[in-house]
Design brief:
alpha/beta, globular, six-stranded parallel beta sheet, glycosyltransferase, Glycosyltransferase, 2 domains, UDP_glucos_trans, quercetin 7-O-glucosyltransferase activity, single chain
Length: about 425
Amino acid sequence: MGKAHVLAICVPAQGHVIPLMELSVSLAKHGIKITFVNSESAHKLVVNASSYTKDDDIALVSIPDGDQSEILKHVIENINATDSDKITCVLADPGLSWAMEVADEMKIRRAILSPFAATLLVLKSSIPKLIQDGIIGEDGTPTKKKTIQLSPTIPAIETSHFSWICYSNSELLKVWLFEYALRCNKSMKLADKILCNSNYDLEPAAFETNPKILPIGPLLTSNQTGNFWAEDLSCLKWLGQQATKSVIYVAFGSAITFDRAQFQEFAMALELCDRPFIWVVRPDFVEKLSEAYPEGFEERVGGRGVVISWAPQQKVLEHSSIACFLTHCGWNSTMESLINGVRLLCWPFISEQVHNHNYICNVWKVGLGLNRDEGGLIARQEIQNKLEELLGNEKYRANALHLKEKLRASIKQGGSSYTNFISFVEWLKE
């Protein structure tokens, strides 16, 4: 009998690729063979960014972008015809229900990994009842603004904050996000195992509501793999020269963009704060980036600030010089911050980010949110004031450190996430 062989396949988005790749690396360390399938566009980005270290037990494969049921079927058939280690499980992003359908048709075991919070899986699985109760229409649009509870113990959520609606001004995006939610429901029904990059200590009520969801997070590897952009490691040397708990780390993920007015307002906020900072600014973060900075900004902040296009985020957040993280509240960024006991200043934009912001500020109480002015701008003074409050109030740091200890205990031998992960490994090897 050959090795257990997992075909992992993902939505071609940075926030989805990284956790699935991290799980794949962890599985490979336990003797599981991995074929990691990406779309052509994501595959090229990962390879070009040199963010993948070759591993004999992990093969990277690309297929054309889009719903590729027949192509995936052929990939599996070709592997099974030429490799002594045949595919024994398909591990997919929950949004790729067609991959689950292919595996089901081919009588192959099926598992999904949620790259977002377990509470959102519960929300998505509640869609049929939400429609039945008249809370949302057939297209997912709320019939009226109200607050609901998915269970007696899950924190209340406003209908306007549903992940397929929230903060999005694009009707096309809303449609895509709702269709993604429906595909997640299909995947959950077809999957033998539902894994989640979360933790019992973070969302106990969600796991009580659906015990089939197994938390295995935080998923962290020693070297993050799956990045779409090359990491600028020079910031680590600079970090080493800064005082303990002094640096503001700013990163808004892989897809968020700013208009020029907000970009300049934020730059002036960093200048006003008069603290050392690392600011991640992707080339596409704002239109005409080279002309977008306030005049004289770079000269005025001097060596106090470092602006880079992409950061080795896990290494940055675990560094002793980091004081707080100003974030868009993506789930990966949230988990990476929590496992390192770093306080968060929250600036959510779309989808699940507002849900994560609610947990950070109101449930775990390890961060603060920002308020927009009447014109929809987050003003420099608001940013400065909230940063000072976050860094000046010891309760946020104490809460973050307390949660850090719980999360680290859960991924050590004997911990809940570790035990769930090992059980999954053993299931794959059966």
